[in-house]
Write a structure and sequence with these properties.
This protein is an alpha+beta fold and 165 residues long. It contains six helices and six strands.
Length: 165
């Protein structure tokens, strides 16, 4: 379990050997497992789903560092993932800022809009690869797989508050 933004979130990992290939968070164990299965299948990863308290502690510390230092502290090999360019482009969005889905799509225009959305919903390292920084054209919050709109609003606001300090 990881405590983040006053939420106690279940966490699990896709692991092959001693490598963490993905992780996810959720409010519900079966939804968490389904999300990791989708990530594994989408990216063609050969990995087991693992629940591990020591990894939870490690990732909770990395998440705290992410917000404290306003940057990703994980070393993620993006070449392992389908549509890695989508994830690379997400990492270019500055901490505490948002852009629209349509502007983001233009940045990674070699893929269809549907492919980009599927890649976003199969993000192997949510929060660290910041798909939460995308909003609709009208400025409203779109969906946020797997944690929902309320969580997405909270994380965007939290980043903005930190950025302004």
């Amino acid at each position: 379990m990881i405590n983040l933004l006053r939420y106690n979130l279940l966490s699990a990992y896709l692991i092959k050997g001693d490598k963490i290939l993905a992780y996810s968070l959720n409010f519900d164990r079966s939804s968490l497992i389904r999300q990791l299965e989708k990530i594994r299948d989408f990216h063609g990863l050969e990995a087991e789903i693992v629940f591990n308290e020591r990894l939870d502690e490690y990732f909770e510390e990395k998440l705290k560092g992410f917000f404290k230092y306003k940057r990703n502290l994980l070393d993620i090999d993006l070449s392992l993932y389908r549509y890695s360019e989508v994830y690379r482009e997400l990492l270019r969005i500055p901490f505490g800022e948002v852009i629209t889905y349509s502007d983001f799509y233009r940045r990674v225009g070699k893929y269809s809009f549907f492919e980009v959305i599927r890649a976003l919903t199969r993000n192997p390292f949510i929060i660290f690869i910041p798909c939460h920084r995308l909003v609709r054209k009208d400025g409203k919050i779109g969906g946020y797989t797997p944690l929902g709109k309320v969580f997405k609003e909270r994380i965007i606001e939290f980043e903005r508050e930190i950025k302004e300090k």
